[in-house]
Amino acid sequence: METEVKLLLSDLETIKDSLVDASHRTSIDRRVIAVHFLLIILMIQERLEKIYGTGKLANAQRSKIKDMSAEVVDSNPYSRLMALQRMGIVANYERIREYSVAIVGIGGVGSVTAEMLTRCGIGRLLLYDYDKVELANMNRLFFHPGQVGMTKTDAAVQTLSDINPDVVLESYTLNITTVSGFETFMSSLKNKSFRPDKEGSGVDLVLSCVDNYEARMVVNQACNELGQTWMESGVSENAVSGHIQLLIPGETACFACAPPLVVASGVDEGTLKREGVCAASLPTTMGVIAGLLVQNTLKYLLKFGKVTPYLGYNALKDFFPSMEMKPNPQCWNGACLERQKEFAVVVRPVRRAEEEVEEETECLHADNEWNISVVDDSQHSNASSCLPEGLVRELPDADEYREPVFGSEATDDLEDLKRQLEALQAE
Ligand SMILES: [Zn+2]
To answer: What region holds the THIF-type NAD/FAD binding fold domain (predicted)?
Structure first.
C-alpha cells in the first residue's frame, strides 16, 4: 500500500512540474487551466501525505544501526540506555536486541507498551489486534487522528518503524478468540526464525493488554500449553484502578487458578456490559499501567531488580498493593495441572538445592552440631555509621545501652547529697 502511494505521489510530482512549466509558456487561457490543475494536484498531494505519512516526515526516518553503542553523542539513540550499564543497573543492556515480546491487544495499554519497548530497542515485537483506530480512542496516548480507519496493527507498525527501524515488527490483524485466529497466534509464538537456538517457544514473553476475560483466557490457554511465561495487565472500567501480574505456568497461579469473583460465580461476561453504558478510560491510568508493565518486562528480560508477581494500582488513594499467588492444585485448566506437575518434579528440586548452597555459604558457623548460625557482632558496632551524614540518633542504640552500675559510686553520690542538704539547713 505504502509503495503504491509513494509511486502515485511521484507521478503527481512529475505532472506538477510539467504544469508549472506550461503555466509560464502557453497562452493566457491555457495558463489559467494549467494553474487550476496545479492547485488540484497540490491539494491531492497534501491529503495523501496526511493520510499515509509518506511525505517529508517519512524521509526523516533514520537508517538502521548494527551495534548498540555507549558513545555519548547527540546522534546516538541508545546512549542513555547503554548508560544503565555504566551506572551498574544492568549487566548487559545490548542483550535486549535478542528478545522477542508478543503484545496481545494494541489499545490504550498495548500501544503505549509497544512504543516504550520500541524506544528501549527491543529485538522483535509481535503485535496482535483486530480492531481499527477510531476518533473515540483519541483520549488515549499513541494513535493520532490521521490514523483513523487504519487497523491498529498497521497504524502501530507505521509509527513504531519510524521511531526505531532497528526493531523487527510483526503485525497480526486477527482475533485470537476465533479458531483460525488462535491457530495463527500459536504458530506465530512457536516460530523460531528470529533466534533459532532459543529454548522453548519463539518468544521470550507474552504481554496481555486485552480488555476482556475471554481473550485473557485464550492467552492463558496458549501460554499454559507452551509453558510460556507471560504478564497480564488490566485497567478497570471506571478508569481509576489497574494491575499487572506475572504468570509462570506451573510456578504461579494461572488466570484460571483464581478467576475474578464475578466470573467464578458463573456470570456470563457478555451480560456484564450494560447497553448504552460506555466504559471510561484515562490516558493517565493507562500510561501508569503500561509503564509498570514495561518496567517489569525490562527487569524480567535484563535480569535486574525484583520482578513483581502482582502489583495493583488504586488511583484514588495512590495505593499499590502487591502479593504472590500460588497455583491452584484443583485448577480446571488441564495444561496448568501438567505444568504444575513438571514444576514439582523438575524445577522445585533444583531450586531447593540452589537455595541450600546459598544458605551454606551465608552461614558463619555451619560446622556446629545444631546448624545454628551466629550473627557477626561487627555489624552492630557499625550501626550508627549507617545514618546519613549530619544525622545523629536521639536515643542510644540497643547495643550501645549499658546497664547502670549500682555500688560504691551510688553510695558516694547519696552521701554527697546528704552533706549538701545538711549544709543548706545549717545556713
Ligand atoms: Zn491454573
So the answer is: 78-332
